[in-house]
Amino acid sequence: MSHDIERDAREDREDATKWRQRTRGGTLQDYFERSEKSGCIDFSLRIVRTKDGLLDFYIHPSGMDGETGDFHVSGAFVTNVPDGLGAGSDRPVVPGLSGSK
After folding, report:
1. Which long-range contacts (CB under 8 A, 24 or more apart) does 87-92 make?
2. Mean pLDDT score across all residues of the chain
3. How many CB atoms lie within 10 A of CB 7?
4. Looking at residue 78, what DSSP letter applies?
5. Looking at residue 6, what is its pLDDT?
6. How far apart are CA 13 and CA 6, in angstroms?
7. The pTM is what?
8. CA distance linking residue 77 with residue 58, whole number of Å
């Protein structure tokens, strides 16, 4: 039985490693850790309802230059949106308006 527990734990670690590689450092936790290292602990966050009715958000350091992160929300899950495709990209947040960041 302990063999099964060890195998399950190993598989969980492998799954976490694969997830980390797949997201290429793009998790919300990764974003916060990078920001904290550069001295940023305060953020501005804007939510955007997509045309499909889904919720996205972008987050940027408040009052200072820094990385803007784009994320998609689904229930308790937050996933990274590839560069240039998210709410923080140059596409208009509100249809008909020029892009805003």
Report:
1. 87/46, 87/47, 87/48, 87/56, 87/57, 87/58, 88/58, 88/59, 88/60
2. 75
3. 10
4. E
5. 78
6. 11
7. 0.59
8. 15
CB 70, CB 86: distance < 8 Å: yes
Measured CA to CA in angstroms, residue 57 lies from 17, 76, 85 at distances of 25, 14, 12
**What are the helix (H) ranges across the chain?**
2-23, 28-37
Residue 53 structure tokens: 């009715």
Could you tell me the CA-to-CA distances from 37 to 28, 71, 81 in Å, in that order?
14, 20, 22
CA 46 from centre of chain: 13
Alpha-carbon gap, residue 54 to 49, rounded angstroms: 6
Token duo for residue 8: 């399950």
Q: Tell me the C-alpha distance between 43 and 51, whole Å.
A: 25
43-49 vs 77-80, strand pairing mode: unpaired
Residues 6+ away with beta carbon under 8 Å from 68: 58, 59, 60, 88, 101
